[in-house]
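Example record used in the benchmark description.
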Amino acid sequence: MDVILSVMLLLLQVFNGGGVHAGQESASASKMLSSLFLAPIMHGSGIPVPGPTAPETPNREGAGTSSVKYDPQPDAPKIKGIYVTAHSAGGSRMESLLKLLDDTDLNGMVIDLKDDNGYITFPTDNAELLKLGTPQKYIRDIKGLMERLKKHDVYPIGRVVVFKDTVLARKHPELSFRRKDGSIWENGKKDSFVNPYRKEVWDYNIAVAKEAVKLGFKEIQFDYVRFPEGFEKKADSLVYDKTKESRVDTVAEFVKYAKSQLEPLGARVSVDIFGYAASVPAAEGIGQDFVKISKHVDIICPMVYPSHYSTDWFKLKDPDKNPYETIKGSMIDTHKKLDPIGSYKPVIRPWIQDFTASWLGKGHYIKYGASEVQAQIKALHDTGIDEFLLWNAGNKYSAGVNYK
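Model output (C-alpha coordinates):
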Protein backbone atom coordinates (compact mmCIF):
# COMPACT_ATOMS: atom_id res chain seq x y z
CA MET A 1 0.00 0.00 0.00
CA ASP A 2 2.79 2.46 0.90
CA VAL A 3 4.48 1.84 -2.47
CA ILE A 4 1.25 2.44 -4.41
CA LEU A 5 0.55 5.57 -2.41
CA SER A 6 4.03 6.90 -3.07
CA VAL A 7 3.68 6.32 -6.82
CA MET A 8 0.31 8.03 -6.91
CA LEU A 9 1.61 11.03 -4.97
CA LEU A 10 4.53 11.32 -7.39
CA LEU A 11 2.16 11.25 -10.37
CA LEU A 12 -0.01 13.87 -8.73
CA GLN A 13 2.99 16.15 -8.28
CA VAL A 14 3.88 15.75 -11.97
CA PHE A 15 0.32 16.69 -13.00
CA ASN A 16 0.43 19.69 -10.69
CA GLY A 17 3.63 21.01 -12.22
CA GLY A 18 5.19 21.20 -8.76
CA GLY A 19 3.37 24.35 -7.65
CA VAL A 20 0.08 25.87 -6.63
CA HIS A 21 -0.04 28.29 -9.58
CA ALA A 22 -0.09 25.66 -12.30
CA GLY A 23 -2.42 26.04 -15.28
CA GLN A 24 -6.08 25.08 -15.31
CA GLU A 25 -5.48 21.97 -17.40
CA SER A 26 -2.98 20.46 -14.97
CA ALA A 27 -5.18 21.40 -12.03
CA SER A 28 -8.13 19.59 -13.59
CA ALA A 29 -5.99 16.58 -14.32
CA SER A 30 -4.73 16.41 -10.76
CA LYS A 31 -8.28 16.57 -9.42
CA MET A 32 -9.30 13.73 -11.70
CA LEU A 33 -6.29 11.65 -10.67
CA SER A 34 -7.00 12.36 -7.03
CA SER A 35 -10.64 11.35 -7.29
CA LEU A 36 -9.98 8.20 -9.32
CA PHE A 37 -6.93 6.81 -7.58
CA LEU A 38 -5.74 8.68 -4.53
CA ALA A 39 -9.04 9.21 -2.77
CA PRO A 40 -9.92 5.52 -2.29
CA ILE A 41 -6.38 4.71 -1.17
CA MET A 42 -5.99 7.67 1.16
CA HIS A 43 -9.45 7.37 2.64
CA GLY A 44 -8.74 3.71 3.24
CA SER A 45 -5.52 4.68 4.97
CA GLY A 46 -7.25 7.17 7.24
CA ILE A 47 -5.61 10.13 5.40
CA PRO A 48 -8.10 12.91 4.61
CA VAL A 49 -8.31 14.07 1.00
CA PRO A 50 -10.69 16.55 -0.63
CA GLY A 51 -13.27 15.03 -2.90
CA PRO A 52 -13.62 15.97 -6.59
CA THR A 53 -15.09 19.35 -7.40
CA ALA A 54 -18.46 19.09 -9.06
CA PRO A 55 -19.74 22.13 -10.97
CA GLU A 56 -23.31 21.15 -10.20
CA THR A 57 -22.76 21.50 -6.44
CA PRO A 58 -21.98 25.18 -5.98
CA ASN A 59 -20.39 26.59 -2.87
CA ARG A 60 -23.59 27.79 -1.24
CA GLU A 61 -24.37 27.79 2.44
CA GLY A 62 -26.24 24.54 2.95
CA ALA A 63 -25.99 23.60 -0.73
CA GLY A 64 -22.98 21.46 -1.39
CA THR A 65 -19.31 21.41 -0.46
CA SER A 66 -17.59 22.55 -3.63
CA SER A 67 -14.13 24.07 -3.23
CA VAL A 68 -14.71 26.34 -6.22
CA LYS A 69 -16.53 29.64 -5.86
CA TYR A 70 -19.92 29.60 -7.58
CA ASP A 71 -20.73 32.51 -9.91
CA PRO A 72 -24.50 32.92 -10.35
CA GLN A 73 -23.86 34.71 -13.66
CA PRO A 74 -20.97 32.94 -15.39
CA ASP A 75 -21.95 34.54 -18.72
CA ALA A 76 -22.08 38.11 -17.40
CA PRO A 77 -20.36 40.63 -19.68
CA LYS A 78 -17.09 42.28 -18.77
CA ILE A 79 -18.25 45.48 -17.12
CA LYS A 80 -16.94 48.93 -17.91
CA GLY A 81 -19.20 51.17 -15.91
CA ILE A 82 -19.89 54.53 -14.34
CA TYR A 83 -21.21 55.72 -11.00
CA VAL A 84 -24.70 57.26 -11.07
CA THR A 85 -26.25 59.06 -8.11
CA ALA A 86 -29.93 58.59 -7.34
CA HIS A 87 -30.48 62.24 -8.28
CA SER A 88 -29.00 61.60 -11.73
CA ALA A 89 -30.84 58.31 -12.15
CA GLY A 90 -34.16 59.97 -11.37
CA GLY A 91 -33.49 63.25 -13.15
CA SER A 92 -32.70 64.81 -16.50
CA ARG A 93 -28.99 63.95 -16.41
CA MET A 94 -29.83 60.31 -17.03
CA GLU A 95 -30.46 61.09 -20.69
CA SER A 96 -26.88 62.25 -21.29
CA LEU A 97 -25.46 59.35 -19.25
CA LEU A 98 -27.39 56.83 -21.32
CA LYS A 99 -26.11 58.53 -24.48
CA LEU A 100 -22.55 58.20 -23.14
CA LEU A 101 -23.03 54.45 -22.86
CA ASP A 102 -24.76 54.24 -26.24
CA ASP A 103 -21.84 56.02 -27.93
CA THR A 104 -18.93 54.23 -26.22
CA ASP A 105 -17.77 50.83 -24.99
CA LEU A 106 -19.14 51.55 -21.52
CA ASN A 107 -21.91 49.11 -20.60
CA GLY A 108 -22.73 49.32 -16.89
CA MET A 109 -24.09 51.70 -14.27
CA VAL A 110 -23.64 51.57 -10.50
CA ILE A 111 -26.75 53.32 -9.16
CA ASP A 112 -27.32 54.45 -5.57
CA LEU A 113 -30.20 52.49 -4.03
CA LYS A 114 -29.24 53.13 -0.40
CA ASP A 115 -27.09 56.22 -0.34
CA ASP A 116 -24.29 57.60 1.79
CA ASN A 117 -26.73 59.12 4.26
CA GLY A 118 -28.67 55.88 4.61
CA TYR A 119 -31.77 56.82 2.61
CA ILE A 120 -33.48 54.25 0.41
CA THR A 121 -33.59 56.19 -2.85
CA PHE A 122 -36.77 54.77 -4.39
CA PRO A 123 -40.39 54.43 -3.20
CA THR A 124 -41.28 51.14 -1.57
CA ASP A 125 -44.14 49.60 0.37
CA ASN A 126 -42.02 46.68 1.54
CA ALA A 127 -42.81 46.37 5.25
CA GLU A 128 -39.44 44.75 6.01
CA LEU A 129 -37.63 47.76 4.58
CA LEU A 130 -39.88 50.34 6.17
CA LYS A 131 -39.33 48.83 9.62
CA LEU A 132 -35.83 50.33 9.71
CA GLY A 133 -35.45 52.19 6.44
CA THR A 134 -36.34 55.72 5.40
CA PRO A 135 -37.21 56.14 1.71
CA GLN A 136 -36.59 59.34 -0.23
CA LYS A 137 -38.14 59.35 -3.70
CA TYR A 138 -35.07 60.48 -5.62
CA ILE A 139 -35.89 57.81 -8.21
CA ARG A 140 -39.65 58.26 -8.39
CA ASP A 141 -40.23 55.75 -11.18
CA ILE A 142 -37.87 52.90 -10.40
CA LYS A 143 -39.65 50.48 -12.74
CA GLY A 144 -39.48 53.02 -15.54
CA LEU A 145 -35.75 53.39 -14.87
CA MET A 146 -35.24 49.63 -15.14
CA GLU A 147 -37.07 49.62 -18.48
CA ARG A 148 -34.80 52.39 -19.78
CA LEU A 149 -31.69 50.53 -18.69
CA LYS A 150 -32.89 47.38 -20.42
CA LYS A 151 -33.74 49.30 -23.59
CA HIS A 152 -30.21 50.72 -23.73
CA ASP A 153 -28.64 47.36 -22.85
CA VAL A 154 -27.12 48.68 -19.62
CA TYR A 155 -25.93 46.18 -17.01
CA PRO A 156 -27.59 47.42 -13.78
CA ILE A 157 -25.63 47.35 -10.52
CA GLY A 158 -27.32 48.51 -7.30
CA ARG A 159 -25.07 50.30 -4.80
CA VAL A 160 -26.00 49.73 -1.17
CA VAL A 161 -24.06 51.69 1.46
CA VAL A 162 -24.07 49.38 4.47
CA PHE A 163 -22.61 50.47 7.80
CA LYS A 164 -22.29 54.20 7.16
CA ASP A 165 -25.91 55.08 7.90
CA THR A 166 -26.60 58.35 9.69
CA VAL A 167 -30.35 58.07 9.12
CA LEU A 168 -30.68 54.68 10.82
CA ALA A 169 -28.26 55.63 13.61
CA ARG A 170 -30.43 58.62 14.54
CA LYS A 171 -33.63 56.63 14.19
CA HIS A 172 -32.35 53.70 16.26
CA PRO A 173 -29.40 54.75 18.45
CA GLU A 174 -29.24 51.25 19.92
CA LEU A 175 -28.01 50.03 16.54
CA SER A 176 -25.22 52.58 16.46
CA PHE A 177 -22.17 53.67 18.46
CA ARG A 178 -22.96 55.94 21.41
CA ARG A 179 -20.87 58.13 23.61
CA LYS A 180 -21.04 57.54 27.34
CA ASP A 181 -23.52 60.42 27.69
CA GLY A 182 -25.91 58.59 25.34
CA SER A 183 -25.36 60.79 22.28
CA ILE A 184 -24.67 59.20 18.90
CA TRP A 185 -21.05 59.22 17.79
CA GLU A 186 -20.32 61.25 14.63
CA ASN A 187 -17.16 61.65 12.60
CA GLY A 188 -15.76 65.00 11.54
CA LYS A 189 -18.24 65.21 8.66
CA LYS A 190 -21.20 64.57 10.98
CA ASP A 191 -21.67 61.05 9.59
CA SER A 192 -22.65 58.20 11.86
CA PHE A 193 -22.19 54.46 11.46
CA VAL A 194 -24.36 51.57 12.54
CA ASN A 195 -22.95 48.57 14.36
CA PRO A 196 -21.64 45.69 12.18
CA TYR A 197 -22.09 43.35 15.15
CA ARG A 198 -25.89 43.74 15.00
CA LYS A 199 -27.62 41.08 12.90
CA GLU A 200 -30.65 43.36 12.41
CA VAL A 201 -28.39 45.72 10.47
CA TRP A 202 -27.20 42.85 8.27
CA ASP A 203 -30.73 41.70 7.50
CA TYR A 204 -31.99 45.21 6.78
CA ASN A 205 -29.28 45.91 4.19
CA ILE A 206 -29.76 42.50 2.60
CA ALA A 207 -33.51 43.18 2.44
CA VAL A 208 -32.72 46.34 0.45
CA ALA A 209 -30.52 44.25 -1.83
CA LYS A 210 -33.21 41.61 -2.32
CA GLU A 211 -35.74 44.29 -3.24
CA ALA A 212 -33.28 45.61 -5.82
CA VAL A 213 -32.85 42.15 -7.32
CA LYS A 214 -36.64 41.83 -7.63
CA LEU A 215 -36.65 45.12 -9.53
CA GLY A 216 -34.12 43.73 -12.01
CA PHE A 217 -30.67 44.67 -10.70
CA LYS A 218 -28.24 41.92 -11.65
CA GLU A 219 -25.54 42.78 -9.15
CA ILE A 220 -25.47 44.32 -5.69
CA GLN A 221 -22.43 46.37 -4.79
CA PHE A 222 -21.96 46.84 -1.06
CA ASP A 223 -20.00 49.92 0.02
CA TYR A 224 -18.77 51.03 3.46
CA VAL A 225 -18.54 47.41 4.55
CA ARG A 226 -16.45 48.38 7.54
CA PHE A 227 -16.24 50.11 10.88
CA PRO A 228 -15.55 53.88 10.97
CA GLU A 229 -12.04 55.01 10.10
CA GLY A 230 -9.79 55.09 13.16
CA PHE A 231 -12.29 53.01 15.13
CA GLU A 232 -9.54 51.25 17.07
CA LYS A 233 -8.68 54.58 18.73
CA LYS A 234 -12.21 55.23 19.94
CA ALA A 235 -13.68 51.74 20.46
CA ASP A 236 -13.07 51.66 24.21
CA SER A 237 -14.75 55.01 24.77
CA LEU A 238 -17.97 54.09 22.96
CA VAL A 239 -21.02 52.11 24.04
CA TYR A 240 -22.20 49.41 21.63
CA ASP A 241 -23.09 45.73 21.50
CA LYS A 242 -20.43 43.31 20.37
CA THR A 243 -19.64 39.61 20.21
CA LYS A 244 -16.40 37.70 20.77
CA GLU A 245 -15.66 37.88 17.04
CA SER A 246 -12.95 40.25 15.84
CA ARG A 247 -13.92 43.22 13.70
CA VAL A 248 -12.25 41.60 10.68
CA ASP A 249 -14.16 38.34 11.11
CA THR A 250 -17.44 40.18 11.73
CA VAL A 251 -17.18 42.13 8.46
CA ALA A 252 -16.11 39.04 6.51
CA GLU A 253 -19.03 37.07 7.96
CA PHE A 254 -21.47 39.76 6.83
CA VAL A 255 -20.14 39.50 3.28
CA LYS A 256 -20.34 35.70 3.36
CA TYR A 257 -23.91 35.86 4.68
CA ALA A 258 -24.94 38.42 2.07
CA LYS A 259 -23.67 36.22 -0.73
CA SER A 260 -25.48 33.19 0.67
CA GLN A 261 -28.72 35.20 0.63
CA LEU A 262 -28.37 36.78 -2.83
CA GLU A 263 -26.70 34.00 -4.78
CA PRO A 264 -29.84 31.79 -4.92
CA LEU A 265 -31.65 34.77 -6.48
CA GLY A 266 -29.15 34.81 -9.34
CA ALA A 267 -27.53 38.07 -8.24
CA ARG A 268 -23.83 38.71 -8.15
CA VAL A 269 -22.24 40.36 -5.11
CA SER A 270 -19.46 42.94 -5.23
CA VAL A 271 -17.78 44.91 -2.46
CA ASP A 272 -15.93 48.22 -2.53
CA ILE A 273 -12.70 48.29 -0.54
CA PHE A 274 -9.86 50.75 0.00
CA GLY A 275 -7.30 50.35 -2.77
CA TYR A 276 -4.34 50.35 -0.41
CA ALA A 277 -5.83 47.34 1.41
CA ALA A 278 -4.14 45.20 -1.25
CA SER A 279 -0.75 46.63 -0.32
CA VAL A 280 -0.86 46.36 3.48
CA PRO A 281 -1.79 43.73 6.09
CA ALA A 282 -5.41 43.50 7.21
CA ALA A 283 -6.89 46.77 8.44
CA GLU A 284 -7.86 45.50 11.88
CA GLY A 285 -9.15 48.89 13.02
CA ILE A 286 -11.91 49.15 10.44
CA GLY A 287 -12.35 45.40 10.11
CA GLN A 288 -11.34 45.02 6.46
CA ASP A 289 -9.23 42.09 5.35
CA PHE A 290 -8.78 42.20 1.58
CA VAL A 291 -8.40 38.44 1.23
CA LYS A 292 -11.17 37.36 3.61
CA ILE A 293 -13.66 39.66 1.92
CA SER A 294 -12.55 38.65 -1.58
CA LYS A 295 -13.12 34.96 -0.85
CA HIS A 296 -16.85 35.61 -0.41
CA VAL A 297 -17.66 37.93 -3.32
CA ASP A 298 -18.01 37.54 -7.05
CA ILE A 299 -16.32 40.87 -7.75
CA ILE A 300 -13.93 42.93 -5.64
CA CYS A 301 -13.81 46.65 -6.39
CA PRO A 302 -10.68 48.26 -4.95
CA MET A 303 -10.85 52.06 -5.01
CA VAL A 304 -7.46 52.79 -6.55
CA TYR A 305 -7.82 56.49 -7.31
CA PRO A 306 -4.28 57.87 -7.73
CA SER A 307 -5.29 60.90 -5.64
CA HIS A 308 -5.87 58.66 -2.63
CA TYR A 309 -2.25 57.49 -2.42
CA SER A 310 0.24 59.67 -0.57
CA THR A 311 3.89 60.42 -1.24
CA ASP A 312 6.23 57.43 -1.75
CA TRP A 313 3.49 54.94 -2.62
CA PHE A 314 4.93 52.83 -5.46
CA LYS A 315 8.07 54.99 -5.18
CA LEU A 316 6.20 58.00 -6.55
CA LYS A 317 6.50 61.50 -5.15
CA ASP A 318 3.00 62.46 -6.31
CA PRO A 319 0.87 59.44 -7.26
CA ASP A 320 -1.95 61.66 -8.57
CA LYS A 321 0.43 63.01 -11.22
CA ASN A 322 1.33 59.46 -12.30
CA PRO A 323 -1.95 57.69 -13.09
CA TYR A 324 -0.42 54.84 -15.12
CA GLU A 325 2.30 53.98 -12.60
CA THR A 326 -0.03 54.22 -9.61
CA ILE A 327 -2.69 51.95 -11.08
CA LYS A 328 -0.10 49.47 -12.30
CA GLY A 329 1.51 49.29 -8.86
CA SER A 330 -1.83 48.81 -7.13
CA MET A 331 -2.85 46.02 -9.50
CA ILE A 332 0.45 44.19 -9.07
CA ASP A 333 -0.14 44.25 -5.31
CA THR A 334 -3.76 43.15 -5.79
CA HIS A 335 -2.74 40.08 -7.80
CA LYS A 336 -0.06 39.19 -5.23
CA LYS A 337 -2.64 39.42 -2.47
CA LEU A 338 -5.32 37.36 -4.20
CA ASP A 339 -3.41 34.79 -6.28
CA PRO A 340 -2.87 32.48 -3.27
CA ILE A 341 -6.63 31.94 -2.83
CA GLY A 342 -6.78 30.22 -6.22
CA SER A 343 -10.30 29.46 -7.42
CA TYR A 344 -11.74 31.78 -4.78
CA LYS A 345 -10.09 34.78 -6.47
CA PRO A 346 -12.92 37.07 -7.56
CA VAL A 347 -13.21 39.22 -10.64
CA ILE A 348 -11.12 42.35 -10.04
CA ARG A 349 -13.03 45.43 -11.16
CA PRO A 350 -11.33 48.57 -9.80
CA TRP A 351 -12.78 52.02 -9.33
CA ILE A 352 -10.60 54.49 -11.23
CA GLN A 353 -10.41 58.28 -11.20
CA ASP A 354 -12.28 60.64 -13.50
CA PHE A 355 -12.08 63.76 -11.33
CA THR A 356 -9.45 66.36 -10.48
CA ALA A 357 -8.10 66.26 -6.91
CA SER A 358 -7.33 69.96 -6.51
CA TRP A 359 -7.50 69.60 -2.72
CA LEU A 360 -4.04 68.00 -2.85
CA GLY A 361 -2.57 71.44 -3.36
CA LYS A 362 -0.56 73.14 -6.08
CA GLY A 363 2.18 70.96 -7.51
CA HIS A 364 0.73 67.73 -6.15
CA TYR A 365 -2.09 67.08 -8.61
CA ILE A 366 -2.93 67.33 -12.28
CA LYS A 367 -6.16 68.00 -14.10
CA TYR A 368 -7.79 64.73 -15.07
CA GLY A 369 -9.33 64.24 -18.49
CA ALA A 370 -9.35 61.74 -21.35
CA SER A 371 -5.56 61.14 -21.34
CA GLU A 372 -5.41 60.44 -17.61
CA VAL A 373 -8.41 58.11 -17.72
CA GLN A 374 -6.92 56.21 -20.65
CA ALA A 375 -3.58 55.94 -18.84
CA GLN A 376 -5.34 54.20 -15.96
CA ILE A 377 -7.19 51.86 -18.32
CA LYS A 378 -3.91 50.98 -20.06
CA ALA A 379 -2.34 50.16 -16.69
CA LEU A 380 -5.25 47.82 -15.99
CA HIS A 381 -4.89 46.11 -19.37
CA ASP A 382 -1.14 45.75 -18.86
CA THR A 383 -1.76 43.92 -15.59
CA GLY A 384 -4.46 41.60 -16.93
CA ILE A 385 -7.53 43.56 -15.77
CA ASP A 386 -10.27 44.25 -18.32
CA GLU A 387 -13.10 45.56 -16.11
CA PHE A 388 -13.34 48.92 -14.37
CA LEU A 389 -15.69 51.54 -12.93
CA LEU A 390 -15.34 55.31 -13.31
CA TRP A 391 -15.95 57.54 -10.31
CA ASN A 392 -17.03 61.14 -10.54
CA ALA A 393 -19.22 62.27 -7.64
CA GLY A 394 -21.10 64.70 -9.90
CA ASN A 395 -21.44 62.15 -12.72
CA LYS A 396 -19.60 64.43 -15.18
CA TYR A 397 -17.37 62.13 -17.18
CA SER A 398 -14.52 63.11 -19.51
CA ALA A 399 -15.32 63.33 -23.21
CA GLY A 400 -13.28 61.63 -25.89
CA VAL A 401 -12.09 58.62 -23.90
CA ASN A 402 -11.37 55.36 -25.69
CA TYR A 403 -12.64 52.79 -23.21
CA LYS A 404 -11.48 49.70 -25.09
